[in-house]
Write a structure and sequence with these properties.
23% of the residues lie in helices and 32% in strands. By secondary structure, the protein is of the alpha+beta class. The protein has one domain: Alpha-Beta Complex (Nucleoside Triphosphate Pyrophosphohydrolase), CATH 3.90.79. A hairpin with a 2-residue loop joins strand 9 and strand 10. It is globular, with a radius of gyration of 16 Å.
């Protein structure tokens, strides 16, 4: 096992490495491209168009029996945007809120996460989502005391705790064809917990793995920016 993949099994190493990576220039579009659908009309790597709606999501890391985990949610099929998809807890930034406050509030509302137990380490690169015209700001938080999550049924169907060593395993990566906005696209996915993680969530996770030295790879044809 490489030193970087060995480190991803250690909670102390993950917390230290992510915190250090967030203090340096981020890979941004280079990481996002690894898990981006192709072709990708409406999205240009690293570009945030004017008029996008700011939103924030909490990328929450924590140990479970000593193994580093990342928390994901499966969105309710009744939501107006990205229904039924695997995502990070998050939503639209409200007037007067900081992005960090938005991410923590949404996580509390959606899964019962206690903001008082979460330490915010920083933010990953913002990402424009053409389908909903949201500008997603991933806020990275850690907690030493993971809760018994309480999903809000109107918003969340399921809470997933995904071990980072599993997410970093090339065996969980795949590519599938999806019809998006009337166009067939080759979509890289992480297959975890019986679910396909794709789109913006997969792209955010790619940047997290990049910081940890576990570079995602995927099949399919990639376009140049």
């Amino acid at each position: 096992m490489s030193s970087s993949l060995a480190a991803i099994h250690s909670w102390d190493s993950v917390r230290r490495t992510v915190a250090g990576g967030l203090a340096l220039p981020l890979p941004g579009a280079d990481a996002h491209l690894l898990m981006s659908p192709a072709p990708r009309p409406g999205w240009k790597p690293g570009r945030i168009p004017k008029g996008g709606r700011d939103s924030a999501a909490l990328l929450l890391l924590f140990p479970r029996d000593g193994v580093p985990q990342v928390l994901l949610t499966k969105r309710s099929p009744d939501l107006p945007h990205h229904k039924g998809q695997i995502s990070l807890p998050g939503g639209t930034k409200e007037t007067g809120e900081s992005l960090r406050e938005t991410a923590l509030r949404e996580a509390q509302e959606e899964i019962g996460a206690d903001p008082a137990t979460i330490t915010v380490l920083g933010e990953l690169s913002p990402l424009y989502i053409p389908v909903s015209r949201f500008v997603l700001h991933p806020v990275v938080g850690v907690t030493e005391s993971p809760s018994d999550w309480i999903p809000e049924p109107r918003e969340v169907d399921r809470v997933l705790e995904v071990p980072l060593p599993v997410l970093a395993d090339p065996a969980v990566r795949d590519t599938e064809t999806r019809l998006i906005l009337g166009m067939e696209r080759q979509v890289p996915v992480f297959r975890v917990e019986g679910e396909a993680v794709w789109g913006a969530t997969a792209m955010v996770l790619a940047e997290l793995l990049w910081l940890l030295g576990a570079f995602p790879t995927c099949g399919g044809t990639r376009e140049t920016p």
